[in-house]
Amino acid sequence: MVAGDAYLAGPARHGVDTNTPVEFVAVLTGAAPVLAQTRSRRQPTWASAAETVNTAYGEPFDTYATALLALEQPDTLEVRVIPVGEA
Question: Could you report the per-residue pLDDT of 64-73, keeping only the tens digit for each?
Fold first, then answer.
């Protein structure tokens, strides 16, 4: 979670920080629609968290909450929140 003042930098190139990708900033600020996805022992490929967690969401905060709920599932290995269309 990012709260309060924060400094975000992109990947280091030759020891120099780069700008944070615009897509990443959009996901963090709620400016872009996002999707929560999970990978589990039963499904090793990425799948929509809505298929594995009984919740619906329309706000970015709800998407992150869905990702956290998915982590409570015993078979969940990883979760991610990505911009819609990036899957």
Answer: 888 888 888 8
